[in-house]
Write a structure and sequence with these properties.
single chain; 467 residues; Rossmann fold; 18 helices; 38% helix
Length: 467
């Protein structure tokens, strides 16, 4: 029987464009070939980004035609178009479809907050539930791009062995180890560096389960990042942190999906997301710029970055106009507990050139983060602590008049709530160490009730009436 979703060129517009993608230094503008591993500019040491020098060819297709192409591809059953590479021309066109790695990432739902949660926050809003990705976080978007690229380079250059490595507070390591484990054993090795005692048990279990070599180091994420940066500069390794611009390109799919889910109309839209290493907020802004350049959308949305009081360098930069790294204090939003975000130079450039009036930074307390997570999950969501940071940031942005309650509002829940169930337990038991500065509210606590009896005892406890 013929498949109803037949992937012929007549029915599904398959990608054939390969572009001319190169690394480009954000400071001096020097370019370098895509088939080599570059993370910083050899000439001046600044960050790199990917640019497609043939992008103007894509502009020969109208915005209406692009919308039709991407909408038709959603009907495809081809694995290479099932994930983020549905937007192949905008993600990494140099990677042919046969080298694309698809593990079920992307196209996460926009879930509308119910009336009670919307009232609590101050306006109706949607949650982009990126915790529903394969490794339970948004990092799979970047890894799908990075590992597809790596798969292509291994084949093209016939590399005998590659070591993939990252520093992480949990989510990056889980995603990196998962996607690397899909590549041929013997040719690819996975290594992750974690700050000892700063990763939840659930997050630690993920790279271990995927077979990665897990190295714990003293300190915080910033300390681990310094080590992998040193390794990436001086040894032959494939870096999988957001310093790798190939990974950033995959995370741009977040913006593409939101636009598509809104019928390509982003007018009056504000997107709220946490700032960790600043790679994701970079990707979100770059993604919307791509769509605007191709006239797929008519305007840019407002982007609101949220940081904890315990790690707030971007907020301080936006308030004072001067950037300075900060020393972090333990935070429930572990993935955002970064005092010197690697991708900050990209954020600054994007804001100054494109988002000056459309980028805001919000700072929230640890108490507000936990209440954001707990309240959202009480109303039908699976929001992590970073998602709680987004919810709290939205609430504060509305209270401070940064966004109007009549705007269209989307918050990013970057990870699955179950990865951070330890913080929920600590909240229920009121066992947070003092440095977290969290005092649980009784109405948000919960605990199991043990009843040593049968149905009548349960009915009595629940005050049920007989029929």
């Amino acid at each position: 029987m013929k498949n109803r979703r037949d992937n012929t060129r007549e029915n599904i517009p398959l990608p054939t464009y390969r572009g001319d993608v190169v690394y480009s230094c954000i400071n001096c503008g020097d370019t370098f070939p895509i088939d080599q591993f570059f993370y910083t500019c050899p000439a001046c040491g600044s960050l790199m980004k990917l640019i497609d020098r043939s992008f103007s060819e894509l502009e020969n297709i109208t915005g209406t035609e692009w919308r039709d192409i991407f909408d038709k591809r959603k009907m495809s059953n081809a694995p290479s178009l099932s994930g983020i590479f549905l937007f192949h021309e905008l993600i990494l066109p140099t990677v042919p479809p046969e080298d694309v790695i698809y593990l079920g990432e992307g196209h996460t739902p926009l879930v509308q907050a119910n009336h009670d949660l919307s009232s609590w926050a101050g306006a109706p809003f949607f949650v982009k539930s990126d915790g529903l990705n394969p490794s339970a976080s948004f990092k799979d978007r970047g890894m799908a791009s990075a590992i597809s690229y790596l798969n292509h380079v291994i084949r093209k250059r016939d590399l005998p062995e590659v070591l993939g490595i990252c520093a992480s507070t949990g989510d990056t390591s889980a995603a990196a180890a998962l996607y690397l484990s899909y590549l041929p054993k013997g040719r690819v090795k996975s290594v992750v560096l974690l700050p000892r005692g700063k990763v939840t048990v659930q997050q630690l279990s993920q790279p271990l389960g995927s077979g990665a070599t897990v190295i714990e180091l003293p300190g915080v994420f910033d300390d681990c990042m310094k080590v992998v940066e040193d390794l990436a500069e001086n040894y032959e390794v494939f870096l999988l942190n957001s310093k790798n611009s190939v990974r950033i390109n995959g995370q741009k799919s977040f913006s593409y999906e939101i636009a598509q889910q809104l019928g390509w109309d982003v007018s009056g839209l504000s997107v709220v997301l946490p700032i960790g290493n600043a790679g994701n907020i970079t990707a979100v802004m770059e993604g919307f710029l791509d769509l605007l350049r191709l006239k797929i959308i008519d305007s840019l949305p407002t982007v609101i970055g949220v940081q904890s009081e315990h790690a707030d360098p971007v907020y301080r930069w936006r308030m004072a106009g001067k950037y300075k790294p900060v020393s972090v204090v333990p935070s429930v939003a572990q993935a955002a507990m970064i005092g010197d975000p690697v991708s900050f130079p990209k954020v600054r450039q994007l804001v100054e050139e494109h988002f000056e009036t459309r980028f805001f930074a919000i700072r929230v307390s640890e108490q507000e983060i936990m209440e954001g997570m707990m309240t959202a999950n009480r109303h039908g969501h699976v929001v992590c602590t970073q998602g709680g940071e987004s919810v709290a940031g939205l609430k504060k942005a509305i209270e401070n008049g940064i966004v109007s309650p009549s705007s269209r509002l989307i918050i990013d829940s970057t990870s699955h709530q179950l990865k951070f169930s330890e913080f929920q337990r600590m909240y229920f038991e009121d066992s947070f160490p003092d440095e977290y500065e969290v005092s649980p509210r009784e109405e948000l606590k919960n605990e199991p009730v043990y009843i040593n009896g049968g149905a009548s005892d349960v009915a009595e406890y629940l005050n049920l009436q007989k029929k």
